[in-house]
Design brief:
Blueprint: H1 22-33, H2 45-48, H3 50-88, H4 90-98, H5 103-138, E1 142-143, E2 153-154, H6 161-178, H7 180-187
Antiparallel strand pairs: 1-2
């Protein structure tokens, strides 16, 4: 009404606090409006904005592509870091082999270093990400209104503990993969 400058309404937007109740609310509204003249349609978000699904699929593809590039770069850079650390200590590893340290123990040493880098990186990343989310939430950033709405929406970043756990597991896997070249190099050391 405000946008069209009229006293009549062409649509009514209902916002739900729990999206899981959408089907039940739609069924209740359809039952309550079944006898209304003229007939009224009850549409869900996806039916009202079909372009949303397409845009979401496009963004998902972009994020997967860019995420895989970032993961590859992180893997290569951490592999380079671990390999350089191993090459700088080649004499130390040779001395350890000479005094009876097994190749398995040296490989475990490198894997432990990779695990520590993963743990420290995960903790620093979680602290940085959580802090950044808190700062963005404190700024009360306004997003453009969704379709069929007139008022802007507050941007609220929600941090879930499971996201930090998944990121830590991802870092662990990346660093274990990155530790393979240094482990192979140590294994071949004479």
């Amino acid at each position: 009404q405000r946008l069209l400058g009229t006293a009549s309404a062409t649509s009514v937007l209902v916002g739900l606090h729990d999206p899981a109740t959408l089907a039940a609310v739609q069924a209740g509204l359809r039952a309550g409006l079944a006898a209304h003249d003229p007939p009224m349609a009850v549409l869900g978000w996806e039916e009202r904005a079909p372009f949303y699904g397409q845009v979401r699929g496009l963004y998902l593809g972009i994020f997967v592509f860019l995420g895989s590039i970032v993961a590859l770069l992180v893997t290569l850079s951490t592999a380079n870091t671990l390999l350089m650390a191993m090459l700088e200590r080649t004499r130390e590893f040779a001395v350890l082999l000479a005094i009876g340290t097994t190749r398995v123990q040296l490989a475990l040493l490198i894997l432990c270093e990779a695990a520590w880098v993963a743990v420290l990186g995960s903790l620093l990343g979680a602290a940085g990400g959580g802090g950044l989310a808190t700062i963005i939430n404190a700024l009360h950033v306004k997003m453009p209104p969704p379709p069929a709405a007139a008022d802007p929406v507050d941007l609220a970043l929600v941090t879930a503990g499971s996201d930090f756990v998944w990121a830590a597991l991802f870092m662990g896997v990346v660093l274990l993969v990155a530790a393979i070249p240094p482990v192979v190099r140590v294994w071949r050391l004479r």
